[in-house]
Write a structure and sequence with these properties.
Layout (H helix, E strand, L loop, with lengths): L1 H46 L1
Length: 48
């Protein structure tokens, strides 16, 4: 019984971790996409 309960906890933790992993990549690309757009105008201004 103790082993089964620990396995359930492990599975629940894995589900939570997988959800975090799925959400974080979606947020990261958005930041990466926004940062280059913000940095390029600054680079253009500096060239001017």
């Amino acid at each position: 019984m103790k082993n089964s309960s620990s396995n359930k906890k492990g599975k629940s933790l894995n589900k939570k971790n997988s959800k975090k992993n799925v959400s974080s990549p979606k947020e990261l690309p958005a930041k990466h996409v926004s940062s280059p757009k913000e940095s390029t105008p600054k680079q253009v201004d500096s060239l001017k």
